[in-house]
Amino acid sequence: MHSFHDFLTMGGYAVYVWPAYAVALVVFVGSGWQSRRGLRRALSRAARRAREVSK
Amino acid sequence: MFTWLHKMGSPPVLYRFAERAAPWCKWAAFVLLAAGLVGGLVLSPPDYQQGDGFRIIYIHVPAAIMSLLVFGYMAVASATGLIWRLRMAHAVTAAAAPIGAAFTFLALVTGSLWGKPMWGTYWVWDARLTSELILLFIYLGYIAVVNAFPDQRTGDRAGAILALVGAVDIPIVHYSVQWWTTLHQGATLKLSGSSMATSMLWPLLTMMVAFLLYFCWLLSLRVRTEILHRERRATWVMRLAENGDS
Amino acid sequence: MLRELLRRELLIAWRRPGEAMTPVVFFLVTSMLFPLGLSPDASMLRPLAPGIIWVVAFLAGMLGLQRLFRADYEDGTLEQLLLSPRPLTLIILVKAMGHWLVTGLPVVIGGAVVAAMLFVPARYIVTVVIGLLLGTPVLTLLGTMVAALTVSLRQASVLGPVLILPLVTPVLIFGAHSTTLAMQGQSPVQAFEALAAMLILSASLLPAASAVALRISHEG
Q1: How far apart are CA C35 and CA C57, in angstroms?
Q2: What is the pLDDT of residues C55-81, one digit of tens each?
Q3: Cα separation of B199 and B47, whole Å?
Q4: Chain B residues with CB inside 8 Å of A24's CB?
Q5: Is C157 on the interface with B (CB under 8 A)?
Q6: Domain coordinates of chain B in residue numbers?
Q7: Pick from C138, C145, C143, C141: which is nearest to C197 by CA?
Q8: B113, B200, B212, B245: best mutation site toward chain A, by most A Cβ within 10 Å?
């Protein structure tokens, strides 16, 4: 259909298309990472509290 | 369904459900994202008018749809929380809000990048973008309200009212902005033809479902975080944490 | 009892004219900044006039909103209102009406003055007045709800506008453009209809929402 070169340049629109996908990647990866980290932190905080109570 | 709702009102039950649903949502989302990206970036042909520039819709449209869907979901959850006094409904709403705001932000940025080659400027006061911008402010307003109250329950319920009023307002905002842009002969970002070729359509549908599943995964993570924070004094939470969860 | 409540609201405003006058004075003074900041040229100000009037009218309207419940909250009157046998929704509607009469109505009248200042042709000034007459009550009603939500907060004065402004944009759009359309020779009726519809919707839903919000903030 089109070459790898066409894929990279997006028919001349590369400067718009690729940043758009890049922002999407950052938002997805960032939100995923931040949500996972929030859960991990909440779990470790809960574990700490449980240890203090059981003392 | 009503009994299911009541079961989900129990924090440990909701926690377990979110925990179990998470991997399914995550992997299904990844698979569909991959399929959608391949379909959208490689397999579908260039648009008649916009060439390869149209490919931004594979991010922009799903993000815009999710930004609205999430707010609708928040409104329903808010109403549920207020009517049946289910604090887990409020927990879900609070967990969903930042995700919805992120989708709105993404819709705005990609819309702006799409607008530049099409209309010549990075910002274009078209109906969809302007409505999305206002929606973003409503999301931020909700997050501010819920966090402004020292008492969690009051903050939740105040936010719920705001979410409900916002939900009624958003269609009105969209309609008014649309009216306003037609006054000034603007146009909404869209493709050349009103009907899309199948080869262009299926990646779009795939991406929409992929975004929805990704939202579900993020929600499953965030709602667990909310529950752990809100129910931190409960014994089941302590026991869960002691046993070292995943 | 409701008539007494309305009279009480108006009496309080009468006794503190400073508080009541602030929004309309702000409206007039701030509108004046535009010719000073932009240009004294009529051809430049005239097309911008409807937008300027509405934006500044809204900013002025938001000034007085904390007044709505704050004083009552602090002196305990709010508690009495919440315990009253009369439906809270109705009480709030009356309070909102009183508030609009004191802060909104002067802005409607002031709008005619500002329109003239900004070179809106005399025959279109009536569209400004009608638009503000329909739109400012919606702002008051939305503001009532936000004030009810934030009455117990200390940082409410900052949060309030942030919450209201996104919600009130349709009123701004239809209001400002009703006059713009008229000045372009088209009919403003569709815009007025939209404003009227929003007024009816707000008046029927928002007082009840405010009542719920007030109970929520008061319990917290």
Answers
A1: 16
A2: 999 999 888 787 778 777 777 778 888
A3: 11
A4: 59, 63, 106, 110
A5: no
A6: 54-191+203-242
A7: C138
A8: B113
Q: Say if residue C191's pLDDT is above 90.
A: yes
Decide if pLDDT at B238 tops 90: no
- Subunits adjacent to chain B (3 or more Cβ pairs under 8 Å): A, C
Task: For residues B173 and B175, give the distance between their C-alpha atoms in angstroms, rounded to a whole number.
Answer: 5
Is the pLDDT assigned to residue B246 strictly greater than 70? no
User: What pLDDT, in 10s, does the model give residues C89-121?
Assistant: 988 999 899 889 988 999 999 999 999 999 999
Q: Do A39 and B114 touch (CB under 8 A)?
A: no
- Whether the CB of B102 is below 8 Å from some CB of chain A: the reply is yes
Amino acid at C66: Q
Higher pLDDT, B118 or B195: B118
Q: What is the pLDDT of residue C9?
A: 78
Mean pLDDT of B44-48: 78
Contact B55 A24 (CB under 8 A): no
Asked if C137 and C171 touch (Cβ cutoff 8 Å), the reply is no
Q: Does C153 touch chain B (CB under 8 A)?
A: yes
Among all residues of chain B, which has the CA nearest to that of C146?
B162
Where are the domains positioned within chain A? Answer: 4-54
Nearest alpha carbon to residue B10 among B86, B79, B94: B86
Residues of B in contact with C155 (CB under 8 A): 148
**pTM for this model (two decimals):** 0.90
Nearest to A39 among B98, B225, B237 (CB): B225
Higher pLDDT, C36 or B243: C36
C166 touches chain B (CB under 8 A): yes
Distance CA B173, CA B156 (A): 24
Q: Are C22 and C109 in contact (CB under 8 A)?
A: no
- How confident is residue C49, by pLDDT bands cut at 50, 70 and 90? very high
Query: Hey, are the CB atoms on A31 and B99 less than 8 Å from each other?
Result: yes
Q: Give B36's pLDDT tier (boundaries 50, 70, 90).
A: very high
Please name the residues in contact with B124: beta carbons below 8 A apart, sequence gap of 6 or more: B111, B112, B115, B186, B189
CB contact, 8 Å: C129 with chain B? no
Min Cα–Cα distance to chain B from C154, Å = 9
CB contact at 8 A, C22 and C63: yes
What residues contact residue C151 under an 8 Å CB cut-off, 6+ apart? C69, C70, C73, C78, C214, C217, C218
Interface of A with B in 9-38 (CB under 8 A): 10-13, 16-17, 19-21, 23-24, 27-28, 31-32, 35-36, 38
pLDDT band at B190 (very low <50, low <70, confident <90, very high): low
B97 and B78 Cβ atoms separated by less than 8 Å: no
